[in-house]
Design a protein that fits this description.
Strand order of the largest sheet: 4-5-10-6-7
Number of strands: 14
CATH topology of the largest domain: Uridine Diphospho-n-acetylenolpyruvylglucosamine Reductase, domain 3
Strand content: 25-35%
Distance between the termini: 53 Å
Radius of gyration: 19 Å
Order of helices and strands: EHEHEEEHHHHHHEEHEEEEEEEHHH
Structural class: alpha+beta
Bound molecules: flavin-adenine dinucleotide
Length: 289
């Protein structure tokens, strides 16, 4: 199907983009990589009369380390994150996750900020951003605010973004030397959205796990942090009994809806499988370091 007709404006500042959003309201959409938006236009799920192309906004580009943080500009493409030496060194969780996002052609155009703004519940970046304690910079061109990733995803495709705001960047605190990461997901075919996925982080010192983050995607309307499972593992050595307790806690924390490919009970079972695999990988990494 062809997209409906729309006007097109290319802007080079956050202020100009936000001003157009205010002027045109719900009739306008930002376009970044276009990898989600153009598909929804083609299927006529959305019929905006104006597309505001934000790819030329310089302040939303780039990946850098400064002031104890890794900063990923909202317009960094998935492939930029995948290939970034800074990301691999400071936040390898993102390097592990990137190859699971769609296919190379989509990763060449889709953006970090676009994925987070769209907030697909089965997408990789939102869960990784929560697991790595990321914070989003949101701007309406005159005022900026910072929102923790954990507070940003409000419900199915619902976020804390106001109608005239853009995500300009995501900041991650640089992890300490004991921080370890693991990323696992199950999908029908490589590159499909995940049936169930898991982003894990934790401090691993002499075989003890502290301050874990267990964040699932594909099992709810938003990334889901499994806090009771975290509590079952925190401060211990992830021995089989503790892992059993953590997996049992998932039953009370995750309420996945079944879909075309997996029933809710199957998804819950797979979440437990991923937790065992992910924690083993996290702890094994410490054994080698
Ligand atoms: C076949 C296919 C398979 C895919 N598989 C996966 C997958 O496995 N995992 C995955 O995570 N994604 C997947 N995607 C989606 C892909 O990752 C998209 O690139 C991403 O979701 C959106 O990024 P974008 O830059 O293309 O955004 P766009 O399509 O340009 O925009 C998406 C939405 O976000 C808004 N937006 C964009 N940037 C900003 C910003 N900076 N501030 C505020 N709002 C903004 C737009 O207005 C729009 O509403 C897939 C897409 C396709 C077509």
């Amino acid at each position: 199907m062809k997209a409906p007709p729309f006007a097109y404006r290319r802007v080079d500042s956050v202020a100009a983009a936000a001003a157009l959003l205010r002027e045109h309201g719900d009739e306008a959409r930002l376009i970044a990589g276009g990898q989600t938006l153009l598909a929804t236009l083609g299927m006529r799920l959305s019929e905006p009369s104006l597309l505001i192309d934000i790819r030329g906004i310089a302040e939303m580009q780039g990946i850098a380390v400064a002031d104890g943080h890794l900063r990923i500009g909202a317009l960094a493409r998935h492939v930029d994150v995948e290939r970034s030496a800074l990301v691999a060194r400071h936040l390898p969780l993102l390097s592990l996750a990137a190859p699971h996002i769609a296919h190379a052609a989509i990763r060449n155009r889709g953006t970090f900020g676009g994925s987070i703004a769209f907030a697909d519940p089965a997408a990789e970046w939102p869960a990784c951003t929560v697991a790595a304690d990321g914070a989003l910079t949101l701007s309406d061109g005159t005022r900026s605010r910072t929102v923790a990733a954990a507070d940003f995803f409000l419900g199915l495709y619902q976020t804390a973004l106001r109608p005239d705001e853009l995500i300009t960047a995501v900041q991650f605190p640089l992890p300490g030397p004991q921080r370890r990461f693991s990323f696992t997901e199950l999908a029908r075919r490589h590159g499909d959205y995940a049936t169930v996925g898991l982003a894990l982080a934790g401090d691993v010192t002499d075989g003890r796990l502290d301050d874990p983050r267990i964040v699932y995607f594909g099992v709810g309307g938003t990334p889901v942090r499994a806090r009771a499972a975290e509590a079952a593992l925190a401060g211990g050595r992830a021995e089989p009994a503790a892992l059993d307790r953590a997996v049992a806690e998932l039953g009370g924390e995750l309420a996945p809806a079944g879909d075309l490919y997996a029933a809710a009970t199957t998804k819950l079972h797979l979440a437990g499988v991923l937790l065992r695999r992910g924690i083993q990988s996290l702890m094994a990494e410490d054994a080698q370091s």
